[in-house]
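ENTRY TYPE: paired fold submission
RECORD: A
CONTENT: sequence, then structure tokens
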Amino acid sequence: MSKPRVLIPVALGTNRDHDLAHAFELAGAEANVVPLTALRSGAFRLDDFQILGVPGGFSYGDALGAGRLFGLDLVGWFGDQLHAAVARQTPIIGVCNGFQALVRSGILPGPSHSAVLARNERHDFECRWVTLEPSTVRSVWTAGLSEPLRCPVAHGEGRFVSGDLDALRAADQVAFRYVDAGGKPAGGRYPANPNGSVADIAGVCDATGFVVGLMPHPEDHVLDRQDPLRGRPGAGAGRCLDLFKAGVAAVV
């Protein structure tokens, strides 16, 4: 059986594409890092791939707002392809800047909800490791994830704000929440909640469960040696490889 093909589009300023590709390859997929220019030329099309991974970084230098121009690219150049992929339930993940782009494009949380990723509450760029609790049974990306995950954040605009929080919760679209190192709710407290996100929301999915986005970087903890606590008691716990395996399994 051939491996599922993952499309990882990159814009100027994207810098986490190879980390994301490595995570998908470890999960059993074939990762393809493709510049947006190649997609615009028609050399590649989204429907040639089984999974879409929108990577992190600082696309277009975060001009006009984090992820805004990348999001405009996605809907402006590839809107038909992107909406067709969502309609046929293609697994899609957006990480950090990729999450911002999917929110800017309207793909997340979806047409029936409103949300933004605003400047961090402390007005700082946060670069630290955090703990996440998978919080939905709706998403294919969280299938089988029963333990907290550990991975880093690296963002200045990651504070999730929603005008439809009750509806988002009722639809089971909160995919990840920030918790403390012991797995207890962050309760909005820093540093467990690094940016002041409402209800400690670190990531959300769409109504289908096939599209997910999150601010932390799970692609940076798929191997034990990536953990700064390696060699200490509990090292290796909280790896995020199973998140990518779940996305791949959804198309195998």
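RECORD: B
CONTENT: sequence, then structure tokens
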Amino acid sequence: MLMQQLADYAIKEQTAKLPADVIHHAKRAVIDWYAALLPGSLCPPATLLEQAFAEDLDRGRARLATGRRATTRTAALINGAASHTVEFDDIHRDSGYHPGSPTISAALAAAQSSGATGEQFLRAVIVGYETSTRIGEAVMPSHYNFWHTTGTVGSFGAAASAATAMRLNHDQFMHAVATVGTFAAGLQQAFLSQAMSKPLHGGHAADAGVLAALAASKGVTGALDIIEGKKGFGNAMSVNPDWSKVTKGLGTDYHINHMTFKAHGCCGHTFPSIDGVLHLVMQHKLKPQDIKKITLATYKAGLDIIDNATPEGEYQAKFSLQYTVAHAAIFGSVRLNAFTSERMKDAELRDMMKKVVCVADPVFSKGYPNQRASQVDIETTDGRKLSHFQPYRKGDPELPLTDDELNAKFMELAEPVLGDAGAKHLLAQLWALDKAPTAEFEIQRGSVRATA
């Protein structure tokens, strides 16, 4: 039974000696999560959720990004949504999934509430990533036809991480993960509108994981074959899942070592095309007026989500290949300022979008999800035809962000929220998490201090 094998791994991981590179990459994942969390905490839906769940705030041992105390589930919910809002959170490519939002949100809330150490928190993060990314690989790519993996697969990651942070026993861990399987949800229709539902997928998964772990700690049981059973998660939400991928390399080949950390603040499906356009623009010193046409040939699963020539607001713009590529061609980047109301009305940007043509390439489409490639062709106004093949995205394991680049990303996104000194202090503490006596951080605007 898969649940038995997952629990065997998770319990062993609570005390096993972990390789130094695994601890290092877990800290990278947490730093990247905070980078996405902090700006996301300042805008809807997180700000609205604070109003909606006010009765659960200013009490409890868990913390929001704002520094407010919260109950365990509410902290997981709000932080989960906040960390998936500005579209800067991490990606596990082969499972088509953002693990950080649900997994770390649940792990941190559970760790803070249970008094776990920094090392125990990191172990919880690792278990959540390893469990959920493998379940995601098993049900991909068919699962992605309708379902949002961060909401569905993320529920398993959240339950596994919360159960580990709470140091549940073998049977309790199994029942936590089993129970959360029936809560796993998140429909891709949410991507296609200006709704706030997509970030709520990450929040719901984090909350569901904590709920399942708390329930299991008191003896609530779940269906232990919920993953592979005939009416279980796999059969209901995918076609011919490959369950061998769940246990392949579990505990030896760590997926957390092979994460994609975003270099652009938008949907990851846009990245290879953005990277390719930036390469050609910089290589040939192109100005906006030099560009007559941009043709992007990429994979169909991505285009089904990001082919939107007329986005109506910031949520849709983050999922518009035409908008993000046009922005990159003109401004040289796609950061948070790419989606301000003023920028979205820019006439030159709207004109550039009309020059972008998107094509589903059959070869690239077959390579999904293991490869995210794009062929970029730019025709200039003076008749030149420029081409670039982008096999991977900047930030993918093949083109990773260095620690220095990750630190720079963190400071860019955290400094406007915490101030320069506060951001630097938090960053230093996160790099030292494995030595911290507690996973509880009191975060205030302009300053941060760890509480023992």
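NOTES ON RECORD B: The first helix runs from residue 2 to 13. Strands lie at 57-63, 69-70, 291-298, 356-360, 374-380, 385-390, 441-444, 447-450.
STATUS: closed
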